Each structure stands twice: as structure tokens, then as C-alpha cells.
Amino acid sequence: MASILRSSSASLRSAAHASATRSLSTAAHYFPNEPSGPQIKTQIPGPNNQKATAELNEVFDIRSLNLMADYEKSVGNYIADLDGNLLLDVYAQIASIPVGYNNPSLEKAAKSKEMTNALINRPAPGNFPSADWAHILKTGLLKAAPKGMNQVFTASSGSEANETAYKAAFIYYRQRERGGPNAEFTEEETTSSMVNQTPGSPHLSILSFKKAFHGRLFGSLSTTRSKPIHKLDIPAFDWPQAPFPALKYPLEEHAKENAEEEKRCLEEVEHIIKTFHNPVAAVVVEPVQSEGGDNHASPEFFRGLREVTKRNNVLLIVDEVQTGVGATGKFWAHDHWNLETPPDMVTFSKKAQTAGYYFGNPALRPNKPYRQFNTWIGDPARALTFRAILEEIERLNLVENTALTGEYLYAGLERLAQQYPNEIQNLRGKGQGTFIAWDSPTRDEFVAKAKTVGLNIGGSGASAIRLRPMLVFQKHHADLLLELIEKIFKL
């Protein structure tokens, strides 16, 4: 289990592409009841979708609506709409569906006595945890914990996961300044905190990167730098941002320039940590800047970042909300970095179907109760869902499947990029499972056309097209995707 969750096997790393292709071509279909391809019966949106959208608009803001879905008829890698159209889904609820629509194993877990009890008697775990809460965590979330981590704080969303991780960083920072967790608060600290003044409300900061996305709540939004629409009109904390490497592609043709760019960014990170007027308690970084345009950096950059944070006694928070749970061909994307020491915290959500942050240092637990607390502190029902997902990942060896399928798919996209160099620019994500993207000068037009050929796909940043298929995405899906992409180019 550990080898599946935490690293690709040695045989996988050394497997030739031809061998990988053979193993993929002979693999059993995970969803035998999937269609052989998309089924388009009406224009999209069709009449039923238009009617349902108008009805929803009476009570709910629909301006970000993509598709009104029929989830009862969706299956595996295919999403259905209300007009009988069935689309190959490589967007997967913004990278959040791990093991396919209507997965039988998840359906079985949903009907279990454990799940029924968690749903109809939803506990407040901080005050009234169920007797089996430790067992649920140990057999699910903690079984998948990143290397060097044995504790978890559960939450309900990616934004909340990051917010609580930031709180843990600030509490840790101030506890260290006071001399340890046993040092009591001063009267001045307690009274000043109630009027949002120092020293009780200290001027500390979290350093994030340009084009980063870490959520839409107040703390996480202050570290989000991807698009102005997320931040306009919202008061923000005075927190710094550092440049994220702007790599040039193909990587092998720009090795020297990219190394210099990463060195420049690391030097700026350290300069900010040492000079910013609000002391930096933690650095937060995504393994791939997903919402900001699928921006990558090398393992060497992230190892350098870890060295900078350790050298300056600053915590490192790795935001794996979108990259975690197998999407990059390893269970946790930061496993690609081969760090000597693990991050201090790793946040997660999306494909986990629950949320929170992992950590290993017991000093990151607050020194007193109710400092990290809310009514729900996550949801046992969602933790049970994650456990079922984890069991399905292990049963079907889906992390390895994603690594192999991603290798095959990337090779196909490289061939298309040679044929259509104006349509596929800066192809990236090699060796990162199916976490692949490219830039297109006609991105929005491409995404709109995709639905007409039965493909649900999304973008990120200003011009990127990103692939976010499920872990059950296989070679025959990759072949179909490549055909559909080329078909769109020819429209």
C-alpha cells in the first residue's frame, strides 16, 4: 500500500514506453458499462437544459454555470446532461472526481451502516466525536498521509484547509516567540486581541507566489494571486508575494535559462523572508499553479525552497488541494521532489472528497483547546467516502494507471503539437501523470467547441487548456481524447 501511495515503483520508473503501451492496451476497462464514445443528441445546451437553467436562475446565481448535469445517467469518465448528451469528462468537477461517476464501490460505501450513522447523526467532532472517529481516520486519511506526517486536522473545503493551516503557522510562530507552548498569554495580549491590535493580533504574514491560487476565504484569498475577479472589493492582509518561475518550453531546450530563472525566484523568496515588514511565518506553494495557468517548476526549485524555509526557520505549507490523491502519477505531487525533510504541512481537498491538512510536528497542535475549532471540523461522512476512494485506488492500482496513461497521453499530445504548433504551445506536465496542460491563442473558442464534439474540458490562467481526467482514465480514453482534440482543431 505504501509503495502505491507514496512513490512509483522502481519498475515503473524504468519501464519503456512500448512496455507501458502494451500494459495499457491489455488493461481491463474499469467501467464496462461506459459508452464507446460521446453521444451528442442535441445542441448544448439543449431544450431541457435551457428550461432547467431558467428555473434555477430564479433562485440561484447561474452566471458561472457550465452544464446542468444528470448524475444518475453519468457513468465512469462520462458526464450526462438533461438532454441525453453524454460527454467525455476530462475536467471532472474541477479536478474533484477521483474514481468515476457512479462508482459501484463508492455506492456500496454510501449504503453502509457507518455512512448512514454519520449522515443522519452528523457529529461535531471537536466536542462529540463518534466512538469510531479514530478508526475512520487511521484506516482512511492517515493511511494516505504524506511521508513524515502522522496527524491530520480535518476541514470541509480547500479554502478552509489552507486557512486553518495558516492559523496553525501563526500560533506556532507566536508560541515559539513566547518560549514554548507552556508559556501563558499576557494580559496585554488577551485584551489587545479583542480590539484587533498588537501584540494580541500580531503583524505576521504568509508568503505566497504570483499567480497562486489558495482559496476564496479571507486568509486564503490574501494568498491568492491568480485573477483580479477573485479579489476585487475584498479587504486583504498585508502579505507578500514572490515570483514563481516562468519556465520556457520545451524544457530540454532551455535548461540553462530555466535554472537561472528558478535561482532568481529563490533568491527573491529569501530576500522577502528576511526583509518584509510583517514577519513571514510560513511560505505556501502549489506543486503546480493550477488556477493560475498550470505553471510548473522543477524538483530542484522545490528542494531549494525547502532549504530556504529551513534556513530561515519558516514553515513550508504545500497546497495539494488540486494536485493530491494520485493526479500526477504519485499519490502526493510533492513526492516528485525527493525532499530530504518533508514539508511542515500539506493541505488537501478535491479528489479526497474531504479536506484538511496533515502535519508531523506535535508542536503544530495549538497549546490550548478551541484555538483550532469549529462545529464540524470536517465531516465523518466525507472521511468515510475518502476511505472508500482510497480502497478503490489500491484495488485498481490507479496511481500507477495514471502515471502510465499520462505517459501515453503526453506522447500523443507531443505528436499533435508537431502537427498543430499554433494550437498547442508550451505543452507541459511530462512525467506528471495526466496533470497536463498547454497554451492556446484561441483557448476560449477551443473550450466552447469541445462540447459540440462531446468533450467536457476546461482552462486555467489567461490562455491554458488543462487536462484534469479522473484516475480511472485509461488508454482507450486517451486515444479518444486525442481524436476529439484533433477534430476540434479542424472545425
From TrEMBL:
Extent of Polar residues compositional bias: 39-48
The UniProt record lists the keyword Transferase: yes
Alphabetic keyword roster: Aminotransferase, Pyridoxal phosphate, Transferase
Record bears the keyword Transferase: yes
GO biological process, one term: gamma-aminobutyric acid catabolic process
Entry EC no(s): 2.6.1.19
Cofactor(s) for this UniProt protein: pyridoxal 5'-phosphate
Class of the enzyme per the UniProt entry, highest EC level: transferase
SUPFAM superfamilies assigned to the protein according to its UniProt record, in alphabetical order: PLP-dependent transferases
Assigned protein family: Belongs to the class-III pyridoxal-phosphate-dependent aminotransferase family.
Name this protein carries in UniProt: 4-aminobutyrate aminotransferase
